[in-house]
Amino acid sequence: MENFELSSLGAGLVALAFWGFIAAVAVAGIWDGIRKRDAQHETVRHLLESGQQTDQATLEKLLSLSDGGNKHPDRDFKITALWILPVAPGLALLGLILGAEAQAPLLGVAVLVACLGIGFLLAGKIAERWIPSDTD
Fold first, then answer.
1. If phi over 0 gives left and psi between -120 and 50 gives alpha, with beta otherwise, what is residue 51?
2. How far apart are alpha carbons 118 and 115 in whole angstroms?
3. How far apart are CA 113 and CA 85, in angstroms?
4. Are residues 43 and 61 in the same domain?
5. Which of 36, 48, 56, 107 is the most exposed place for a label (fewest CB within 10 A)?
């Protein structure tokens, strides 16, 4: 009976540690974003307090630099597709290597991953039409 209680206590602690880690990562990401935005506002405030003449284009460029710069979701979708698409044949090959018992599930997963990759490619093509290019 004591063995069962210790193993369930250990499993509970492992689960608590896992979810605690997930919560810590989420809080750290939010905190990092807040700190970056505060630093950005502080920079703009110092620039304006110094009395220097700044045009709107300079302010927008300064604000976009701290936000990660030029956001291009179309490129992000295409890069994601280039990462995901090669995984599909790898999973299919792994299913063939492992044998009949694992073949059907891994081929199904490979098809799912291929569909995701194709979806990301299509999303990149669609987003490319919506977002003006750098040369416009």
1. left
2. 5
3. 7
4. yes
5. 56
DSSP 132: P
pLDDT at 25: 93
Question: What's the Cα-to-Cα distance from 55 to each of 47, 48, 59, 61, 62, rounded to whole Å?
Answer: 12, 11, 7, 10, 11
If one counts the domains in the chain, the total is 2
At which residue do the structure tokens 């295409």 appear? 78
Name the token pair of 125. 């093509």
What's the pLDDT tens digit per position in 103-118? Answer: 899 999 999 999 999 9
Tokens of 28: 């750290």
Tokens describing residue 84: 């995901």
Neighbours of 85 (CB within 10 A): 16
Please tell me whether residues 59 and 93 are part of one structural domain: no
Of 48, 69, 90, which residue is a domain's last? 69
